Every structure is written in structure tokens, then in C-alpha cells.
Amino acid sequence: MRALTCIALAALAVPRAAEAADAVADALERARRIEEAHGPASPELADALARVGVLLYQIGASADAVPHFERALRIRESLPGQPRLAATLANLGGILWQTGEYSRARPHLERAVGLARQGGSKQEIARALNAHGLLQHAVGDLEEARKTLAESLEIFELEGAPGDVSKALNNLGLLLEESGDAAAARRTFERALKLAGDDPALRAHRATCLNSLGWSHHSSGEHAEARRSYEAALELRREALGADHPDVAWPLANLGLLDEDLGRFEEARKLHEQALALREAGLGADHPLVAQSLGDLARALAALGSSAEALRLAVRSEEIGREHARLTLRALPERQALRHLSARGARARRTQSLDLLLSLAREAKAPGATRAALDALVRSRALALDELASRLRLVQLEKSPEARDSVTRLRSARERLANLRYRGLQGEAPERYRASIEAARREAEEIESRLARLGESGSRDAARGRVQLEDVAASLPARALLIAYVRHREPGRASRGGEVYSAFVLPSGREPDLIPLGRAIDVDEAVAKFHLEASQGALSPGRPSVEAEARAREAGDALRRKVWDPVASRIAGARRVFVVPDSSLHVVSFGALPDAASGYLVESAPEIHLLTAERDLSEPPPSRRGRGLFAIGGPAFGDAEAGEPAFAPLPSAEREVRRAAELWAERFPQEPTVVVRGPEASESAFKEQAAGKRMAHVATHGFFLSSTGMLSRPGTRGLGRVVAARTARKSDSLGFAALAFAGANRSLAGSEAPEDGILSAEEVSVLDLSGMELAVLSACDTGAGDIQAGEGVLGLRRAFQLAGAQGLVVSLWAVEDDATRAWMEAFYRSWLPGGRSAAEAARAASLEVLRERRGKGLSTHPFFWAGFVAVGRQ
């Protein structure tokens, strides 16, 4: 976002630059006199302190304004009737978000909106909504921000002065621009500028409108129009605020970007240096806008050939941005946290410093660039997963009644939301269904926000997420190496969508290399084709197994050449390869890629061990270790109504859990073994008995409902015809990943029982599975889900990790019931004797099934043996 947003603070004329210091000094002196005359807790003093805060904000000293607003807030909270409390909350919250303290701003702004609606004036309601909408925009919740800002604008248009309407229009226009509605944004900016007029009190805001309009022209490639708007904004802002005000940095930075687009890198460097100096002086060294200017300057320097200095600035920019994102995540519910990270990448489309670091490493122009880029990647990978998992652990360890009650309420809210999402597929009117989903989601996220505040103080000191490259390198075993894939943008091509894949290779005891892999669109297409052939080709109607296997090998060859062959020369001599996928590569079974001869990588390559993030290698063991096995499978799904699709019985799944329990009991006779099958294999049984176990084995139907739906085949452990029958009515935009347990067919028939037999990923994520070393999810698509770059797969896999499971065995596609039982028995025979990781045991199981099929002359298509992979710390 390259334009300044406007906070609708209490109406005060902006002082002329020459008078600013005197105005603040006069306001402070007036507050002192009022305190002497009326005491330290009078409404007059609160008003005076608020005025000081507004003046400080307007002259660019936002951080200095905060304590004055905080003191005014304490006074107004203590007064009878709490006069002007909503306005003070809105002002304080607005300044906090603009200084980058989103977590502190959020509760103030939510409270301000609630109080204003209860008894405030229309103006107070509009100002509170405006400030709250800006925070929602800042954290990436664009849908909610649009609703909030639109309501604020509507009230201002009915009740407010033209200046208030103009400010609200500018804020809404920025959101429309970021949402991709460029035409509507342009019209909104033009209207905002017209309403700003020539009012001397609105000079600074008129500059903001010009800056916004300039960005609209800039984004459309209208460079001459953009320059005129930026230069007019710069002149007006200097006149209104003074040359040293940090807001002057906005048009300077935008002019620098414009010069970059025109290849005028020396001019861009000078402009970015000026913007950086203003922001560092006015906002402090660690403000996110300082990070933005550091990234801008680094990019210009890189274009000029000053790679070493560009590297230094880019590292600092990434550090500031990452820590600010981490602090922000602590205050947000999971959905909003993920949106914030996604928006952070999209909003910083030119200044994403990690992209610049990766570019410098690819070009090998700066000494130490490869190590610096990999270190930044290690620190930034799976930020939301780390912070959310840390929050849940801290809250669950908290013994206060409030923490226990909040966790219980969140579990209930997640359960209601999951029931609605699944039962909503039954044919409820779309409008009513969406309203029900929205209400349930809001309830769950409100509880999440309270939990975030409970866990925030402890989370600040948590060690998780602070692992760096040095720790990862030290944890690599001898004769092992790390391959870390990353999808990123190439600076200079970002505006044209130029994304690529690269792979870091870090051998034990050596320096890392960075290997370019090619355009992201080409890699993603190869992944999609191979995944389709590997997961469905074997059973496609009318396709003989020989032809299906040949097509899978052809698709696999193409993918291997893109993502494995470029790094293969570095692998020679390694016994174990730790792989961290990114983006679409999360759904690749690397062992199923054909080798250059007639076999597969599982046979010819070293052992491949998948990690969620590089940090998995060096994370300390959990403080608590579970005991025993909880095995649940072969549920009695119940009867469905005539003609209704149903979860089919899984006879091999029931035999599978019995056999797993027998092998476990032989190996660990001193630990408890709990086996639940048939009617007892319920959703509640899992929730109540899996906690505290060292291992869980789940053998049932699993599914992931994406926006396009999926269709499992008869005989597999998926959802079968239910997906095809229900997806057309699905109106929730998020994917829905779940496991089916006893009684699941009754919910298909319309049962309203609280336990519907469907255990969703959302429900799993708030369970306490800390101490669980391994969860084996022996069902279809348990490794599937929505994919977010840098965060991984958002589905059952992530849910079990959030709940505390260290390692997982998951499926990448629909798996057959009987073939899965055979693979799982081979897995346990390899793993339970000890001395092998889950990844080693999974490889041994795949090799055993592959050899057996080859010996019998059966198809060696990957569908039959490569569907399961081990992921995470093991």
C-alpha cells in the first residue's frame, strides 16, 4: 500500500508547520494549569490531554501522543458516565495502529465501536468505525474492512463535514485499490480530492488525496499523471506539515518507485534516502514504514550495483518486517493471522525484502548473500503456525479459571462452526447458511482474540520461532543435507507477476548453495499434472494399468527434471535428505518421482525426510512426553436414508487398528494401549482419549472439501459420492478438512446431535495433543488442504501440528482400504523395533510394497504404494 490513510481524530485545525512546536507547548502548559486547578482526574484535564495527543499526532510525533491519550483514557474511565470515552478509545487505537502496534490497538478500537453504538453521536460512531476499518485493512482482513469503512462513509455523508467525507473516501479508495477494483478506486480518489477543496485546514489531507490518486495513475502505467500528482502532494505536504514531517516520506517514496520503473535508479536512490531519513527520525528505527523504506533503498542500490550495501539494508528491512508481523499475529485469530501474512506479501509487492535477498543470492553478487537469504527464510517460514501453536500451549498451561473457561468455550464454538459447515451442505438456503456461518465464525474469533490476549505476555518470551540458520546447520546429522524450496518474486518483475522457485542446499558442515529452478507457473503445472496422474491415473476408466503407469512416469519425469535434477549433483554421498517444500510442492511424494533408470527415487535416492519448516531440525523436545497408543478405526458410520450417499464400511481399517495395537503392545508392553472400533469409535472418544498419548493411529474416512470439490472412489477411505452430491451447495469459501467417526451417516440424514461424527481440522487444532510423538492419519487426503506460501498446507496436517503432535504420517491422495492396511503393517514392523525415524519406516514400507507388487508382476503405479508420507519432527 503506497498511500497514506487518514484517521478521523477529534476535529482540530492542523497547525502551520512554523507554529507546531508552539501549539504543542501551549497545550501542555494548559494541561498543567488545568491539573493544578481541577485535580488529576477531571474531565477538563482529559480534554486537555487529548488535545495534546491530537497535536502531537498531527505534527508527526505519534509515539509521543500515545501516553497522553492513555492518561486521558484512564481519567475518562474513572468519571461518572464516562464522557467521550469512545472518542478517546478510537483516537488511542488509531494512533497505536499507525505506529505499528496492531495488537495494542485492536481491543481499544473494538471497544470504541461498541461504546459509540450504545450511546455515542453519529460522528463518534463514524470515527470509531473509520479507525477500526483502517486496522482491519492494515492486518489484511479486506472483506471486513470494506464493510466497516463503507458504513463509516455512509454516516459521514449523512452527518459529517466535507472534510470527514473526503477522508473516509480516501480510506475506502485505498482498500478498493488493494482489492483489485482499480476503476472504482480511481473514481473514489477523484471524488475525495474534489471534496477536499481549497480549505486551508485540509491542506495536509488534500496532499494525501493527491498521493492516492498518483498511486492509482502509477499502478495503471500513467507515469506522467502519476508524477504530477506526487509532486503536487509533496509540495503541499511540505507546506502544510513542514519539510521534516514523516508523512512527507510518502510522496518521496512513491516518486522513487516511479523513477525505478523508468530506469532512473540514481534518482530513485536519492528519493528513497530522503524518505528513510524522515521515517527514522519521526517514527523510530523499528517502525514497519522504516522497513519499507529500507527495502526500497536496498532495491535501488542493488540496481546500481552496490550489492553489499543492498544486502545489509535488505537484511535489516526483513528483520523489522518479520518482527512486526510476529507481534501482529499474536493479537489475531487464526483466519485473520493467515490473511495478514498473505496481505503482507501482496501489499509489499515491490519492497518484500526476502525476495530481494533471494535475488541477491541467486545472482551471487554480494558476499554472504546466500547465507543471509537462507537465514531470513529459516526465521520467517511458518510464522503463523509457530505463533499460534505457542499461544495455544501457553494458554493451555495457564491454570487460571479464565484461561480454562476460554479454551472450553473455544472448543465448543469450533464444534458448532464445524457442524454448521458440514450440515450446511444439506440444502439450507445459501443466504441463511452464510449468515449462520458468519455468526458462528465471529463467535469463535472473539474467543480466539481473548485467548490471544491471555497468552500474549508469555508468548513474547517464547523461544519457539527464534531458531536461526546457525541452529539448523548445527543440527544436521553427518552425511545429511537440507533442501529448502522457496517460491518467491523477482524484484523488477513483481508487477508483472514474475514468480520463480529456488532451492537452497545446505550440506552438513558446509556453506549453503542456492539453485534457480525456473518459473513458478511451469513448476506448478508440472506438480499438478504429476499429482493427478499419481493419485487418479491408476483407476481412470478405460485406461489399462500399463498405460496409466507410463503416463505417471512421464509426468513424474517432467517434474523431477524441474525440482530434483538441478540439486541432484549436491546430494552425492548423502544418506539422508531433509526436504522443506513450499507452495505446490507440499503435495509431491518425492519418492514416487521416477529415477533416470526404470525405478523410483524411493529406491535410488537417499532417505527423504519431509519437514514443515527448517526449524523442525533443531526444535527442542517437548517438555511433556505422552504414554501409550490410542488407536481408533473401522467406525460404525450408521445407516443412511434410502438413496442418500453414505460413508461405506471399512473392514480393513478395523483389522488395521487391531494389528497396530498388537505390534505396539509387543514393543511397549509397559505402556497403555487403547483400541476403539465400531460403534465406540466416535468423535467424542477421540477428543477425550487421544490427549496424553505418545501416539495416535486413526483409520477411517478422511476428506478435504475445496471450493471445487473432490470425488473419492469406492473402496477408498475418502468421502465418496457425498462430495459430488453436496459441493454444489457449499457456500463457505474456506476448505473443510475432516475425519469421519461413528454415526457420521446420521448427520448426512439430518440428525442434529451435538456430536455429528465429523471431526474437523478446526476442532482438532484446539485439542491438547502436546507430548504426542506421532499421529498416523490413515485416511484419504489427510495431507491435503488449502496451501499458503510460507505457511504450508492448511488442513488436518496443520491442525494436528497446532494441537501439539510432533510428527505425522499423512496421505496425499485417496487411498484404498485394503492396500492401506498392508502398507501400515509394513510401516509398524519397520518403525516399532526402534532406531528408525517415521520417515525411514515410511520409506521401508513403500519399498516393501513396491518389491512385492513387482515380484507378483503387478502395476507399480505410485497410487498403490506412494500415497503416504511422514512429515515433521520425528
Fold topology:
Layout: H1 20-38, H2 43-58, H3 62-78, H4 85-98, H5 102-119, H6 122-138, H7 142-159, H8 162-178, H9 182-196, H10 203-219, H11 223-241, H12 249-261, H13 265-283, H14 288-303, H15 307-329, H16 334-347, H17 353-363, H18 369-380, H19 383-397, H20 401-423, H21 430-459, H22 469-475, E1 480-489, E2 499-507, E3 513-519, H23 520-536, H24 545-563, H25 565-571, E4 576-580, H26 601-604, E5 607-610, E6 629-635, H27 651-667, E7 673-678, H28 683-689, E8 695-699, E9 702-705, H29 721-726, E10 736-740, H30 744-748, E11 758-760, H31 761-765, E12 774-778, E13 786-788, E14 792-794, H32 796-803, E15 807-811, H33 817-831, H34 838-855, E16 868-872
Helix pairs in contact: 1-2, 2-3, 3-4, 4-5, 4-6, 5-6, 6-7, 7-8, 8-9, 8-10, 9-10, 10-11, 10-12, 11-12, 12-13, 13-14, 14-15, 15-17, 15-18, 17-18, 19-21, 19-32, 20-21, 23-24, 27-33, 33-34
